Amino acid sequence: MKRLLNTLYITQSDVYLSLDGDNIVLLKEQEKLARLPLHNLESIVSFGYTGASPALMGYCAERNISLAFFTASGRYLARVIGESKGNVVLRKRQYMASEDLVLSAKIARNFIVGKIYNHKWMIERMTRDYALRIDVPQFKTVSQQLSALLLDVRECEDLERLRGLEGQAAISYNRVFDSMILQQKEDFYFHSRSRRPPMDNVNAMLSFAYSLLAHDVSSALEGVGLDAYVGFLHRDRPGRASLALDVMEELRGVFADRFVLSLINKKIMSKEDFFEKGNGAVIMKDEGRKRFLTAWQNKKQEKITHPFLGEKISWGLVPHVQALLLARYLRNDLDEYPPFLWK
């Protein structure tokens, strides 16, 4: 099993990344801020425009250390990857499967099964744990709607209809998402999903979490030899990691959404961690982003029992396991792709 190493997050926008031997050096206006050994890292994420030296990028590419660049607001820009580690047969099977719309739908529906199942579990857990603080009949109604949609998704062999069913499930789930926010209700609320730009504190956190999750999933897919840009549910679009978006569907709610909700409900994040720009866009401040990233890294270290493997692993390894299972399915080692079904 892959070892979960550290991810280095550089949150200051004016820090330049360079290489010194087997170490990464962080520089600000020629002043050395830090020097860290690269053998302890599996990923480097930089929020800013200052950049990195070609020597560091080459070192990371050769040693399969993911180096990703985001804007200060958390929007993904680019990622440095090295030579593909996978064999050509696997990628050819991935490309052929992506061109077959019926086969694509059969694969994609398991991503959606995982997503809806996990959303339903989140809702049922809320009714169990917080029955006195939420509208239980409303939550039960949404849970029943998701159960019915799950049955339809399992039988669906058409991509367009599958997207429609996924959209219906998202509408039902979003209807109760605001009720899962139990603390700081005046400052944290969810009326609808807004992106590019996010228009409230909750959407700013969700967008940031999804960007981080997409990066982790992309790295996991590339690590097993798959092409993160050729998907099944999400079709080809220049610059879009379509397969990463496919695989992360089943993890959006159970990992990213629950993580955001915990930061609000445990009062780890507050309204002081955000500011609103002139166009209404809400951005996370530096201190808030640091606190968010620290909690994200801690979350990835938490242990769970993987529902398919039955083995104890950390949350951070879940994308790597799902990428491996998808590769095994495409190699015909599994009858179907097993989605991540968490309880």
TrEMBL record:
Signal peptide feature range: none
Keywords: Antiviral defense, DNA-binding, Endonuclease, Hydrolase, Magnesium, Manganese, Metal-binding, Nuclease
InterPro entries with a match to the protein in the record: Cas1 (IPR050646), CRISPR-assoc_Cas1 (IPR002729), CRISPR-assoc_Cas1_C (IPR042206), CRISPR-assoc_Cas1_DVULG (IPR019856), CRISPR-assoc_Cas1_N (IPR042211)
Enzyme's top EC category: hydrolase
Catalytic activity, EC: 3.1.-.-
Gene Ontology MF, one: DNA endonuclease activity
Gene Ontology BP terms: defense response to virus; maintenance of CRISPR repeat elements
Binding locations of Mn(2+): 166, 234, 249
Cofactor: Mg(2+); Mn(2+)
Cited Pfam families: Cas_Cas1
Functional description taken from the UniProt entry: CRISPR (clustered regularly interspaced short palindromic repeat), is an adaptive immune system that provides protection against mobile genetic elements (viruses, transposable elements and conjugative plasmids). CRISPR clusters contain spacers, sequences complementary to antecedent mobile elements, and target invading nucleic acids. CRISPR clusters are transcribed and processed into CRISPR RNA (crRNA). Acts as a dsDNA endonuclease. Involved in the integration of spacer DNA into the CRISPR cassette.
Subunit structure and binding partners: Homodimer, forms a heterotetramer with a Cas2 homodimer.
Family in the record: Belongs to the CRISPR-associated endonuclease Cas1 family.
Designated name of the protein: CRISPR-associated endonuclease Cas1
